[in-house]
Design goal:
Blueprint (H helix, E strand, L loop, with lengths): L2 E6 L4 E8 L2 E9 L5 H16 L8 E5 L5 H18 L3 E4 L1 H6 L8 E9 L2 E7 L5 E9 L12 E5 L2 H4 L8 E3 L11 H10 L27
Parallel strand pairs: 1-4, 4-5, 6-9, 9-10
Antiparallel strand pairs: 1-2, 2-3, 6-7, 7-8
Helix pairs in contact: 1-2
């Protein structure tokens, strides 16, 4: 029996799950305008362990959302995960935050573009297939009317960028799934279990969150 504790703190959403063999057993989460991860995270962990009826010693691994995202949020999640792995002597699994976000989109065709808001028109983004295969690496970029214009077929955007994204991303094949705003530990369960089965883990001592700070400036093709 494999129990994995999944921790997701990369955005305003703070969530944790206990997953048994890749299936979520318990999920606790909260999304707030003000970050409260430091106060909530360990309370959540204690609560779901109790509700699941297991102890820390029963955990097989800890999985953490690796970023990109909020600097502070990522530090809190990774620090908690590393501390538990050290104390329990179990492996640490790092899961791509944008893949976690894309996993919430129940689509069967086209491409999924998860975007995490940075500031102004800046986002962290990647491109995935409906099977969550990566089609383009994670980038920090400024979105314009020309962004993703080369993509044909259905394109689905998820994340907390819908409001500003819809002002420039207006192609007919673009769809914003506005109900999907934040990554959640609930979608980490299957992803972290697959990594666990492959022994795809990271070094607890040296692992750092994936901070992505540089933005690419794209020149508009519109004539002034």
């Amino acid at each position: 029996m494999t129990y994995i504790l999944n921790i997701e703190t990369s955005t305003k959403n703070c969530s944790v799950t206990i997953a048994k063999n890749g299936v979520t057993v318990i999920c606790n989460e909260i999304a707030e305008e003000g970050y409260s991860h430091a106060e909530r995270l360990h309370v959540f962990i204690e609560a779901i362990l109790k509700e699941a009826g297991i102890a820390y010693k029963d955990l097989s691994a800890i999985a953490v959302s690796q970023g990109p995202g909020s600097y502070t949020g990522l530090r809190i999640g990774v620090s908690a995960a590393k501390g538990l792995c050290y104390a329990l002597g179990i492996p640490l699994i790092a899961v791509d935050t944008l893949q976690i976000l894309a996993a919430q989109a129940s689509v069967f065709d086209g491409l999924i573009i998860p975007m995490i808001d940075a500031r102004r028109m800046e986002v962290y983004s990647a491109i995935f297939t409906p099977e969550l295969k990566n089609k383009r690496e994670t980038r920090a970029e400024i979105i314009t009317e020309n962004s993703f214009e080369e993509l044909e077929g259905a394109v689905y955007f998820v994340g907390d960028c819908a409001e500003k994204g819809q002002t420039v991303l207006t192609k007919e094949n673009f769809t914003f799934l506005e109900e999907i705003k934040y990554p959640s530990a609930n979608e980490m369960s299957a992803l972290s279990f697959e990594k666990y089965k492959k022994s795809d883990t990271v070094d607890v001592a040296y692992f750092e969150p994936f901070y992505l700070k540089d933005f690419m400036v794209t020149t508009s093709k519109k004539q002034v």
